[in-house]
Specification:
One of its GO terms (molecular function) is 3'-5' exonuclease activity. The protein has 136 residues and is mostly helical. The protein is built from 5 helices and 3 strands.
Length: 136
């Protein structure tokens, strides 16, 4: 939501506020984060996308007027997995989604979510090469 701009952040805040006491604990925690996002956007900052090779486990990175979110900002990705990704990438680039899952201990569900968010770019499913890829 934070990467979708000020309007999206305010809309989500209104949605949670409208639920009142029916809002879940997760939504209430999200509301606090959205308040911070709103403040940063109002001050002219932008939010970038999560980046497999630049995002930190739990700290935002400031690049000019853009804030790059940490892995822990991703819904469903906990602090331990975030740290494992940062540690695993020190060994070099991830050549495939399978390698990301194995080296960083990321679940299939999170890899799929990262792929949907565009974090993995054109990363292939596995490392296997096919002799026939270039023939057709």
């Amino acid at each position: 939501v934070m990467g979708d701009g000020l309007t999206a952040v305010k809309a989500k805040m209104q949605e949670i506020k409208a639920k009142g006491f029916d809002a879940s604990n997760v939504e209430n925690a999200l509301f606090g984060t959205l308040e911070l996002c709103n403040e940063m956007l109002e001050r002219g900052f932008k939010f970038g996308k999560l980046d497999l090779y630049r995002s930190e486990a739990s700290d935002f990175i400031i690049e000019g007027d853009t804030l790059i979110p940490p892995f822990s900002a991703m819904d469903g990705l906990g602090g331990n997995v975030a740290k494992q990704i940062v540690e695993a990438r020190k060994a070099g680039e991830f050549l495939s989604k399978t390698e990301l899952r194995k080296r960083a201990g990321v679940s299939q569900t999170l890899v799929e979510k990262m792929d949907e968010m565009g974090i993995l770019g054109n990363m292939p499913e596995d490392n296997q090469l096919s002799l026939f890829d270039d023939l057709f």
